[in-house]
Every structure is written in structure tokens, then in C-alpha cells.
Design a protein that fits this description.
mainly beta, twelve-stranded antiparallel beta barrel, four-stranded antiparallel sheet, 2 helices, 17 strands, 5% helix, 59% strand, elongated, disordered N terminus
Length: 309
């Protein structure tokens, strides 16, 4: 019975790292179903993933690029731990992405190209469900059924990724990013509807291309997910996001580059056994007011242990 319950509920936790595992995408563009789903406390998750992005540059949607023909290959390693925080279910995530970008684009009428491998900015996140998802041990999950969950998170990305101030296209951003978010999840038997609002705040990049200082306004984002649970712990999700804002200022000159972009995607989670799961995902831009449009596909494997599993 406990195993059946775990497969039904802990499978939800498999994609709490989706936005981080697709680290090839800039943070406001995350498509992350079941980010605030409840799971037993004391569980550990080790995740290895790979994402392939083609088209525009996914790490910074506001770069002044056109005619992008860029490819980004991103292997990713992540760890997560669920725990009890004042009687509420909480978790900590850490993701270390590596990447290789290659290709060409046009910047201000001039061709630019890049072929480089290195570390992307890592991401660390704390999240807590403060309504509808109490902290529970594995054996207690036999009586738990989700109704309405409300949660929040804070993600921090330090500027540790590969960065060359003499190049416009980089894997790292050379600035700190802070992303608070609030999410709501409502279950209707096998169907779960989820909605999240977030904002990304940036410090200045004082070593921007050509020795300039680049500032950026906050980027605001919304996510909507419809998740349908199939048999045996398998589930599929239709994902969408819209993000706006992010006007940049370079050396005091404000740009006409405020974002108003949207993406749509799909996610499929497949449990293998009580310790292993596989996830497949893909997303595509459907509106890009400013910045790059790109396609991303990825796969991830998860191993979980601890918590009485």
C-alpha cells in the first residue's frame, strides 16, 4: 500500500526541478509542473538530465540578436531534499548545469559567432507549502489526498557560469539573480490545475560586452499547467508560460527591449520502480516580442532514496 501511494504522490515531486533541469532556459521562462506537490519528508533525489536547445540563445532572452542559428547542449546534475519546516512540507534544490553553445547570429547589423563549453550559472532554491500540504512521513501518505495547495519559493543563481566580457554570447550572465515565486495547485480527481506567479530580480553586470554596465528591470512571469494522472504513477502535463518586463539599460541608455514572450510545452513522467523515474519534456516559443525564439527538448533520470523508502 505504501509503495502504491508513493508512486501516486512522489511521482509528482519528479518534476519539481523541471525549470531548473531545463537550465538552458532563462529563469523567467521556466515550465515547471507540480513544483509545489506534497511528498514525504526525508527523501533525497539525485537527477541527471540533458537538454538540447536550438534556434535563439536560451540563456538570455533580451540579448540584441537576430537571425540566430545557435545550438545549446546542456547536461545537468541536480540534488534535492524534502524536509519538515515548522510542520509544513519543504524542499531544497541545487542544480549544476554544464553547457556547450555553438552557432552564429546578427548583432547590430554585424555577424557574431560563438563556440564554447563551460559551466552555466548554478541554481539553489528553497520552497515551502504553507497550505494544504503538511509535512508527513512516508507511512502517513496512505491517508493523504491533495485538494488545494498554496506554496512559495525563492531561487538564487550566483554568477559562477562561464563568462567572457569580450564576447556577447556567453553561458553565464555575470550577475546575481533572485527569483521569488508563489504557486497554487488544485486537484480535481485525476486532473490537477496549477498556476504560479514569479519575478526575477538582477544585479548589474559591470563587465558587459565592450566594458559596459548592463542593468535590467525585473522580469515577471506566469505559469499555467494542466496535469493528468495516468495509471501506475505515470502523468502527462500541458505547460504554458508568459513573461514580461526586463527592459535593459546599458551605460545609462535605456533600450527598447521590454519582453512580452510566451512558450508552450509538454511533460511526460514515467516511473520505472520505487527508486527510479524518467522524464521527457519539450517546449516551443509561440510569441517573442523581443529576443530569441527557440525550441528545447530534454530527458532526465531520477534516483530517490531515504525517508523510509
Amino acid at each position: 500500500m505504501i509503495l502504491a501511494v508513493l508512486r501516486r504522490h512522489a511521482g509528482a515531486r519528479f518534476c519539481c526541478l523541471l525549470g531548473l533541469l531545463t537550465a538552458a532556459e532563462a529563469q523567467p521562462q521556466q515550465l515547471e509542473p507540480r513544483a509545489y506537490a506534497n511528498v514525504p519528508v526525508g527523501l533525497n533525489f539525485l537527477i541527471a538530465g540533458y537538454a538540447h536547445s536550438s534556434g535563439g540563445l536560451a540563456t538570455d532572452p533580451a540579448l540584441p540578436l537576430t537571425d540566430e542559428q545557435l545550438t545549446l547542449q546542456t547536461p545537468i546534475l541536480a540534488y534535492a531534499h524534502s524536509f519538515d519546516a515548522w510542520g509544513k512540507s519543504a524542499k531544497f534544490d541545487a542544480v549544476i548545469p554544464w553547457g556547450c553553445v555553438s552557432g552564429s547570429a546578427i548583432s547590430n547589423g554585424a555577424p557574431v559567432s560563438r563556440d564554447v563549453c563551460g559551466l552555466l550559472d548554478p541554481a539553489f532554491r528553497f520552497s515551502i507549502n504553507f497550505y494544504g500540504a503538511p509535512a508527513m512521513r512516508l507511512e502517513e501518505f496512505r491517508n493523504y489526498r491533495q485538494d488545494l495547495i498554496v506554496g512559495a519559493s525563492l531561487q538564487v543563481s550566483p554568477p559562477l557560469g562561464q563568462y567572457d566580457p569580450d564576447k556577447l554570447v556567453n553561458l553565464g550572465t555575470n550577475r546575481w539573480t533572485f527569483r521569488p515565486e508563489i504557486g497554487v495547485s488544485k486537484a480535481f480527481q485525476r486532473l490537477t490545475a496549477e498556476f504560479a506567479l514569479g519575478a526575477s530580480f538582477f544585479t548589474n553586470n559591470d563587465s558587459y560586452f565592450g566594458g559596459k554596465t548592463r542593468e535590467q528591470d525585473p522580469i515577471y512571469s506566469s505559469q499555467l499547467h494542466l496535469v493528468y494522472e495516468l495509471r501506475g504513477g505515470t502523468w502527462v502535463a500541458l505547460d504554458g508560460t508568459y513573461f514580461w518586463g526586463g527592459r535593459t539599460t546599458i551605460n545609462g541608455v535605456e533600450g527598447n527591449d521590454e519582453l512580452g514572450n510566451s512558450r508552450i510545452g509538454v511533460t511526460l513522467a514515467l516511473p520505472v520502480d520505487r527508486n527510479n523515474s524518467i522524464k521527457l519534456y519539450a517546449s516551443e516559443g509561440i510569441l517573442a516580442r523581443v529576443g530569441a525564439d527557440f525550441t528545447i527538448v530534454g530527458i532526465a533520470w531520477q534516483y530517490r532514496w531515504g525517508g523510509g523508502l
